[in-house]
Amino acid sequence: MKVGIMGGTGNIGEGLARRICIGGKYDVMIGSRDPAKAEIAAQGVVDALAERGVKGTTCTGGANADCCDSDLIILSLPFDKIESTIESIGKDKFENKTIISLINPMLRYPKDKYFLHDRPPEESAALAIQKLLPESAKLTTGFNNVAAGKWMLLDEELDYSVVVCGDDKESKNAVKDLVSTVSKLQPLDGGPLKTSGIVESITPLVITLAMNNGLKDVGVYFR
Amino acid sequence: MKVGIMGGTGNIGEGLARRICIGGKYDVMIGSRDPAKAEIAAQGVVDALAERGVKGTTCTGGANADCCDSDLIILSLPFDKIESTIESIGKDKFENKTIISLINPMLRYPKDKYFLHDRPPEESAALAIQKLLPESAKLTTGFNNVAAGKWMLLDEELDYSVVVCGDDKESKNAVKDLVSTVSKLQPLDGGPLKTSGIVESITPLVITLAMNNGLKDVGVYFR
User: Fold this and answer.
1) Which residues are in the Pyrroline-5-carboxylate reductase catalytic N-terminal domain (chains A, B) (predicted)?
2) Averaged over A81-100, what is the pLDDT?
């Protein structure tokens, strides 16, 4: 199985690539607008695998479009880059694909130290992205609320819940399988994509909690 | 210190009364539209205290208006009963009071098994309630996301996070102090009342998670 990460050269994308490869069950394609940058990031993942003696999986770098050959595609791009990225790749390349959005649009209020969900008219980034994709594409949420600063700290466990919302049972199960190979993440079925706005809004809340309680890298666990 | 619980004869209100009294630091006034019902509920709390050998705190029952003598007032009423309750008691009785809203208005979609936040135009029940109260009243959120079914199960620990949002530092600290006397609840400063919409929306999500994952009484822990 292969996972493509569009925008895989950012901190979250690269951390995800490492964590997924280290899980030992998925190869990863790191995609970027700048394929040379993606190749450097991929080499970093390969080095991390060698350092840890992980065998059986590998990581390569390329253009964002190259991610469309993968079984699962993760969108790790800023929300305002999604439309142009899908357009430049071609909407048809996403036909029948299982796609994961970890995007949480946020508004920052530095004076009063809080963040809010920057809610699109569709109620969530995921529901807005769904409108840009072909009808056959199966979009889910995933990895939204994992504390961003922890992705690259490979020696730290990620002991959090990951809520997977989506309208297609099979693709949700595929995403839950992926999630459960990453550190100690606990995948949970969050119902249809219509609930994704709540999931996205938890990220601005955990950042607000970190700021106001002297905490670092706050995540969420449902139990 | 005394805590008044308006709507304290419901499952959550009565469970809260027991848990707070058992904590041993606060007396509780259970308020109800029907004072006789509140007295019966209060007797139940007194019995539970005796059964557990807890001394030093007590519980009494009365009308909702009687809760206004308390140091902290918890609103444990349905959202659509708040306006008429405040009106019938008299807005001035809430002057300078610290008031806690645990209200989470929800919409239920039984066919697709999910719940959403029934978001008022003000973005949250708390922000809508704030407009009904005098300017000197200090409103916070508290106890919103505790699994409702667990309040009355006194032998079960409540090992969850409680996000306290509000615009007055001192009253937020008073609410955090109260929260930390209840079972193993962990109070967290959630920033200003403007973030309360996110906190309220977590409750429909935890119910959705319970339904879709074969779980019971799901709550949230931030870490």
Assistant:
1) 2-105
2) 98
